[in-house]
Amino acid sequence: MGEKSLDVRDFSDVTDYYTPVDNVFVRAHLGVPDLEPAAELADFDWTLSVEGLVENPFTISLADVLALPTRKFTAVHECFGNPFVPDVPTRAVANLEWTGTPLVPLLERAKPLASARHVWLEGADTGSFDGVDGLSYLKDLPLQAAMDDVFLAHRMNGEPLTVRHGYPLRAVVPRMFGTNSVKWLTRIIVSDERPDHMFTTRFYTRVFPGETVSVPVREIDVSSKILSPQDGDQLPGGKLELIGRAWSTTEVVLVEVGVDDGPWEPVVDLEPAGVDPAWQPFTVTRELTPGEHTVRIRATDRAGRIQPPPGLRNSIHEITVTVPAVP
Ligand SMILES: Nc1nc2c(c(=O)[nH]1)N[C@H]1C(S)=C(S)[C@@H](COP(=O)(O)O)O[C@H]1N2
Ligand SMILES: [Mo]
């Protein structure tokens, strides 16, 4: 395994609607596998198996996956955050166009048995994490969610996946945190139970505020991010031209901005959600006086969820900018 990045590096601070591939954060808890991409994607020697509690287990080649009907959609891609400190915001987020094919016809071809309840997704990467050796990267979803939502992606922003982002094939689960989108996907296992595993029951579980039961990290939270300016920037001339993005597992219906001790005020140009689960752009323009200013934003979604104050991973995003004194 190569490069290991349980990193908090976040390259996503560009203002493009589609995050350029080179600016997408990378998470590889067991290390990036050493793979040498083929000149033609279809020539790469790779198989995906569908097995477990099914009538008809089978293995399919990458070339045969690529020959399935192709679809595209744009989706926000967000890391839940460092699994050791899940309440610290990392704001590692991107907006990407995925190309691939839904998983459901392959599950139907395999014919899950009546006892099937869960679908496990396993990647080809193996290694150690939190002191445990010989791990693979394994996630699971309820059977119905796997049928409805799992997409097998082979392109990101129109290009074959890079090795770091899961070449040649990865799962993408739109509207769910990135942790569910298993890279280097090789096995689909149908089961009657959830796997008891490092990345399913030990990490990537959460207790929502006011609740007592721990649940798997799935649906993304309501959130927003200021892409420009960046924290600490100087704004000569005093003109704030903020570019931001908001997203949630459902539509974001309101984004508010607050400057210094001022009240929350709605932004006026929040783009409505389209059919795809993509992020929603907005801007804010303000004249600021010389000196230091704090600028904060918070999003509210259709379900009434509001970005919380600091202390949670999706807390309101606040930056400090300075307007230099006029000479
Ligand atoms: N096989 C495998 N898949 C994985 C991971 C991993 O370590 N191994 N990390 C997960 C996590 S925590 C996230 S946030 C996303 C990140 O995808 P990216 O590196 O393409 O941005 O991949 C997910 N899929
Ligand atoms: Mo993640």
Question: Describe it for me?
Answer:
The chain has four helices and 19 strands. It is elongated and about 75 Å long. It is mainly β. Helices cover 7% and strands 38% of the residues. The protein starts with 46 loop residues before the first strand and ends with a strand. It has a five-stranded mixed beta sheet with strand order 2-1-10-5-6. Strands 3, 4, 7, 8 and 9 form a five-stranded antiparallel beta sheet that branches. A four-stranded antiparallel beta sheet has the order 16-15-18-19, with no helix packed on it. The chain has helices spanning 62-66, 104-110, 143-149, 198-202; strands at residues 47-52, 58-61, 71-78, 93-102, 118-129, 132-142, 151-156, 159-160, 170-172, 185-191, 205-206, 215-216, 223-228, 239-247, 252-259, 265-266, 280-287, 291-301, 317-323. The chain has two domains: 7-216, Oxidoreductase, molybdopterin-binding domain (Sulfite Oxidase, Chain A, domain 2); 223-323, Immunoglobulin-like (Sandwich), CATH 2.60.40.650. Molybdenum atom binds next to loops.
